[in-house]
Specification:
about 240 residues, alpha+beta, about 60% helix, about 10% strand, globular
Length: about 240
Amino acid sequence: MRKWLLIGFLCLLLGWSLPAAAASSVNPKLEQQVLQILREHPEVIIESVQIFEQQQQQKLQKTRQAFLQDLKTNTQLVIAESPTIGSLQSKIVLVEFSDFQCPYCAEAHKTLKQLLAKYPDKFTLVYKHFPLMPIHDQALPAAKAAWAAYQQGKFWEYHDALFTHQQKLGEELYLSTAKSLNLDVEKFQADAFGANSIAEQAIRKDIQLAEKLGLGGTPFFIMNSNNFSGVVQLSNIESILANAT
């Protein structure tokens, strides 16, 4: 009870300060009062932060559960317009959130290629874009280029080329890869980087989904099968596929 009274008092003090703060800095006397309360009762802040974190985790858990339910009962809704490869009839769906400039994603790409070759009829792989733009300056341009290749039915070939030549990501590679795959280069450039391109808008939908699911990095995998449902580590995927009926 005391904890909530203290929190209420702090909120009241801060509420009084808002009109003044709009025109000037916080009242020094008020600031000292708040700091004194915090020094004398640090447990109030700690407990409040813990409660907030618990609430956020509960919210995230519900969001992920809803996503998994959709993945199970309305798979096409989850796939939406994302590229897929593997068996379209399989009940095992593996959703990958990936970044073309992420070195760990490049390693995962090698493993996934091997799994697709070994278990061609076992699962459907769904690719979702999650470019980590704050740390990878070519992640978004690469994603846009891959999206443009997808519009001409060559996503996976382009995807493989980007990961194979990850150290050369840039405009020159994007264009040369488009030419090597016999894409309509003019359309490719317009779709990927043109003024009226909707590539980034489409990619943003994947980013928003990743953020909604609380993803912290790439690669990130979510899998649904008869004997497994949820976030899965790359190292565990093969054992799940091997044991799938």
